[in-house]
Each structure stands twice: as structure tokens, then as C-alpha cells.
Amino acid sequence: MITQMPVWCRGPSYKPFVSYDEVELVMGMDAVQKARPDWRESFTLWSGGPLNINEAPPDLIAAVFSLDASRVGFFTSARNGRGWHCRNFG
User: Fold this and answer.
1) What residues contact residue 40 under an 8 Å CB cut-off, 6+ apart?
2) Higher pLDDT, 62 or 43
């Protein structure tokens, strides 16, 4: 007789993660792991806030937001001061 439901059957607990093993159970995390096998180096369990897209590397932004490299490249180039800038044409 099963006395406790396996963790993968329970659904989200809506609590902070306590280990990276829990993060790996999140739906869609396989895509992040495939795009960035070293994702643990750019991820923290102890942050008080969300992913900082002003500092995140392009491949992590692409994986998290399901964007293609060209769209992320446009954003990161502008973010880093190398892309298109608004100009006063008046």
C-alpha cells in the first residue's frame, strides 16, 4: 500500500525550491538543461527576485523565455550598448 504520493505526482507546491533536484522536476526544465547544461552556475535558490535580464547571458534568456537566438541577440546588443538606439530626428 502506498502511504505517500511520489513527488512527481503531487503537482506544484508553490513554495520556494530547497534544492536543484526540485528545480529539475519543473515542466520545461529539460529545454533549459539542453540549451545550457551548466544552468546551475547561473541560477540561485537564494535570490529574493526574478531573473535579471540586464545581466543574464543570451543563451539563458533564450531558454527561459523560449526565444530564438536572433531575437535575444537584438535585445542583448541593445542592452550592452551595441545595438539600435533611438535618435532624435526632429
Assistant:
1) 20
2) 62
Residue 7 reports pLDDT greater than 80: no
pTM to 2 decimals? 0.43
- Give the list of residues 6+ apart from residue 41 with CB closer than 8 angstroms, or none: none
Mean pLDDT to the nearest integer, 33-62 = 81
Any idea where the domains of the chain sit in the sequence? 22-40+52-83
The better pLDDT of the pair 27, 47 is held by 27
Q: Taking a C-beta distance cutoff of 8 angstroms, is the pair 31, 63 a contact?
A: yes
